[in-house]
Amino acid sequence: MQGGRLLTVFLLLVVLMGTAFYHIQHNSPMEINTDAVRPRPEQHDGFKDLQSQTSVLSNAETVAFRNKTQWDVTVHSDTEDMTNGTCRPHLNVAFMKVHKCGSSLMFHMLLRFGYEHNVIVALPRQKNREIIGGFGTIKDDDFLAPPGGKRWNIFGHHAFYNRTRFPQLMAPNTRYVAILREPLRRLKSAFQYFNLGKGFPGLEKQTPKGIAPVTTYLAKPMYWDPLFKFKPFFSVKKRTSEFLVKAKEHFCFRNCMSRDLGFSEKDYDNNTAVEEFVRGIENDFTTVLIIEYLPASLILLKRRMCWTFYDILYGHHPRRQRYKLKTPITDDMKSTFYQHNYADLMLYTRFNESFQRQISQEGADFQDEVSHFMRINKDVGSFCRSKKRQGKGKMIVKKSKWNDAFSLGKSLCSRYVRNRQYWDALLRSRYQHTQNKELENENSVVQITKSRPRKPPKRPSRKPQKRPLRKPRKRPPRKPRKRPPRKPRKRPQKSRKRKH
């Protein structure tokens, strides 16, 4: 009997040990694997961005950064938020401004976006300057240093794209955006705006009356290019070497879009270099807008960046050039021009096709969203132009399938169509305000860390003694003064003249 009991207890122990071993073998590896797959805080992109930004800051600036001061910016590696299925707006954008492609519209939009989201906007060191750097090189003396040693979140001024320099100046996970235009239309706009006919000696004389000078240029573009001079555009006082070098960035007539995006002039006739350049732009740039399809381009940008209708509202629509002179451009002129501007032709053709392909992949409601945005932008423009409507109150944009409800008033209308000088001064004042705030935070931290001197003991306060009120003195009434009677004055007698 006792042997049977011992055998039963032994068998139960064996079963229990086997169950525990089975549990360890099957359950413990799953827990270890899930912990290994789960990303650590050090591996998250947002943590890396925060670590890289705070590593170069002082103690006071680190405290200010963690406490979300003026320039606190949440940097995300992606706009997708996997917690609730929504997306977060992307705040790091570098817009490459291409001449005569409607880039000023995007420039003003981005400056307003950066101001309203409290992010760092790139500014030139000199006031009232449109260009940061020169011919693809950006030195430290060319821009206003961001407060606290941080990097830019928004870039929108004129500058040649440099794929090695811009990542050094922009915040991590910056997305690059550009805008293009049909090359021949861009040239006609440049001739009209900059009056480029003056720069070619003898071109206007060879142009018949009533005909635009651009047609004479298009007849023989390879003949006219070497003859171009900058001096006729400026007075004698402005004809300095430095000023002429800066002017060359604005005045352009061959492969200008490719030049602004960083393509070297020595490779204009190298088709292989052109192909490599276009592929590089495809890899570097997240979104390339087409000015001929501006509303659709902005909706595509809104979806890519997870922005709102309020962020892409614009007041200045690019004006269509109305030429006073006739421009009879033949098919031979077009073919000659496209051969001479092969880089711009390939660039525009490639991204125009890519743009159309992206729109077709956006879904059936894309065009409906474009139409809805155009109506909202038109209503906002009429509201800001009408003082009567502003006096009645704010304008409310109702909620729809593509946007949440929002309101706007005089504050937006006052900044809606402001120029570059206005935003330059406004953002510079914010730079100075933030620097002063950081100095105050640094001084406060230094004072806290220093040893505090001992305070002297408080003396007992002496209460003032109450004095008895004095009774007012009784003064005797004043006696009226007796004045002596006035003696009558003797008036002098007038002399009478005798009449003869």
Task: State the main characteristics.
mainly alpha, four-stranded parallel sheet, 500 residues, 5% strand, two-stranded antiparallel ribbon, 19 helices
Entry summary:
The protein is mostly helical and 500 residues long. The protein has helices at residues 2-37, 45-54, 59-66, 103-116, 166-169, 183-194, 203-206, 213-219, 221-224, 241-247, 256-260, 271-284, 294-305, 331-340, 342-360, 366-385, 387-392, 410-416, 420-449, and strands at 93-96, 154-155, 175-180, 285-290, 395-397, 406-408.
How would a textbook summarize the main sheet?
Answer: 4 strands, parallel
Low-confidence stretches: 21-84
Q: What structural category arises from helix and sheet content?
A: mainly alpha
The ordered H/E elements are HHHEHEHEHHHHHHHEHHHHHEEHH
Shape: extended
Number of helices: 19
Mean pLDDT: 77
Strand content: under 5%
Tally of DSSP β-strands: 6
Radius of gyration: 38 Å
Reading side by side through the largest sheet, how are the strands ordered? Answer: 2-1-3-4
| Estimated helix fraction | 40-55%
Q: Measure the end-to-end span.
A: 186 Å
